[in-house]
Design goal:
alpha+beta; 7-stranded antiparallel β-sheet; 6-stranded antiparallel β-sheet; 5 helices; 17 strands
């Protein structure tokens, strides 16, 4: 299915949102709960599927829903269609502080592989599917690295990165990063998990036991603050709370 042609504006700084401009009968699909506001003429409908294959039967839709459930996403996708005249707008907010990335799929080969919680919204016609990393190590040791999402189509898709967005263009090169910091990469990039140095470095280095390795030629998107790190820092048992407790003990000694 040919994707709908949509226009957009990304607004905000630390917590961004994207405003989509729709012509009559144009549709954008989004994760359930991502909508921020919609203007007059825009109606929405929750469906079991992305709408990229209208001829797909009930069984096919159930399989798609099951695959989304495995990736940890909602089994339903919301479709927003402009039913009025002229132009109208609908906006989608990022789920936590960070950056929204517009991806023009035809310009990068028609597909992109992203972490399972990175997808925000896309033009109708974009196909969302589950993508398994063939290297089992990425699944056992890479957190969410084993089950990824593939976005395919000939239109615009929008993904979200936590914190600051870092974009690398690899030219037959290798990049090693924290496993949670990978947002997405072009299809054809080899994604694997490797040990973070020797045993001493793994235990005492503070960088985790394993690192993600990206090899090949193409674009790679990274995030400076994945949601897992943000939760860990803000939680009562996180590293910040330990620092506060240590500081309190030191203050008591010097009083």
């Amino acid at each position: 299915m040919k994707s709908h042609e949509i226009d957009y504006k990304i607004k905000g700084h630390d917590i961004q949102y994207v405003e989509i401009e729709l012509d009559p009968q144009e549709t954008v699909i989004a994760e359930a709960g991502a909508m921020l506001y919609m203007k007059e003429g825009v109606d929405f409908m929750t469906k079991m599927g992305d709408g990229s294959e209208p001829e797909k039967g009930l069984f096919g839709k159930l399989l798609s829903a099951a695959s989304r459930k495995i990736t940890g996403e909602s089994i339903f996708i919301t479709h927003f269609t402009h039913q009025g005249s002229g132009k109208s707008h609908v906006a989608f907010a990022a789920p936590y502080p960070g950056t929204i990335i517009p991806v023009d799929l035809p310009k990068i080969g028609g597909s992109v592989i992203v972490q399972r919680d990175a997808f925000l919204c896309a033009a109708l016609g974009t196909k969302l599917s589950m993508h398994f990393n063939q290297k089992l190590g990425a699944g056992f040791f890479g957190g969410e690295g084993f089950i990824l999402q593939k976005l395919q189509g000939d239109g615009l898709a929008f993904i979200h990165a936590g914190g600051t967005l870092i974009e690398h263009e690899l030219n037959n090169e290798t990049l090693r990063v924290d496993t949670g910091c990978v947002v997405g990469f072009q299809e054809g990039i080899d994604f694997s998990i490797q040990r973070a140095g020797n045993l001493k470095s793994m235990v005492f280095g503070g960088e985790g036991l394993f690192l993600a390795t990206l090899q090949g030629t193409g674009k790679v998107w990274l995030q400076s603050m994945p949601i897992s790190k943000l939760i860990n820092q803000l939680s009562p048992g996180g590293t910040n709370s330990n620092k506060e407790q240590t500081s309190g003990l030191l203050n008591n000694l010097f009083e």
